[in-house]
Design goal:
With 167 residues, the chain is an alpha+beta fold. The protein has 3 helices and 8 strands. It has one domain (3-162): 7,8-Dihydro-6-hydroxymethylpterin-pyrophosphokinase HPPK (Alpha-Beta Plaits). The strands form 2 sheets. Strands 1, 2, 3, 4, 5 and 8 form a 6-stranded antiparallel β-sheet that branches. It has a two-stranded antiparallel sheet with strand order 6-7.
């Protein structure tokens, strides 16, 4: 394994905790990835203006031999396997959502994928669990450790920390 990746996980349809565990199990079953650590799970209000159930969110750290684009396709296949359909609404409900937050110190801006994730620092439901795992991670754009960056999420969505472990 050569790469460290931080992935954001979210679910608000069905058994939210079980859906997050499905993501971790599927990633862990691959001989190309290994799940290293998980943040706590947070219950969060939905992002955007669509009325829907609350989410469970977490961040995991993985290692992989997959390139960033292969990893993207791999996690999208896990989402589909969990029952996720193509989004009818941009921030609509979903069984499982997996986003690449960081892929080492790699920077990429494409049509389907942007690394680092361009919205992570505005969303407390990504930033808070990320900081549990990655305080010493060096941000590839600003070239500072995350612990040394002043973040001010645009909106507050965290309702509570859930006392359940994903690993």
């Amino acid at each position: 394994m050569v790469d460290k990746i931080f992935l954001g996980l979210g679910s608000n349809i069905g058994n939210r905790l079980a859906n997050l565990k499905v993501a971790i199990d599927e990633i862990g079953k691959s001989d190309r990835c290994r799940v290293l650590r998980s943040s706590a799970v947070y219950e969060t209000s939905p992002y955007g203006d669509i009325k829907q159930e609350n989410f469970y969110n977490a961040v995991i750290e993985i290692e992989t031999v997959l390139g960033f684009f292969d990893l993207y396709h791999f996690i999208k296949s896990i989402e589909r396997k969990a029952g996720r359909e193509e989004a009818k609404e941009k921030w609509g409900p979903r069984e499982l959502d997996i986003d690449i937050i960081f892929y080492n110190e790699f920077i990429y801006d494409g049509e389907m994928l942007t690394i680092p994730h361009k919205e992570y620092s505005k969303r407390d439901f990504v930033l808070t669990p990320l900081l549990e795992l990655a305080m010493d991670f060096k941000h590839p754009v600003v070239r500072k450790k995350l612990r040394d960056i002043q973040f001010e999420p645009a909106e507050k969505h965290i309702i509570q920390k859930i006392n359940e472990s994903l690993l």
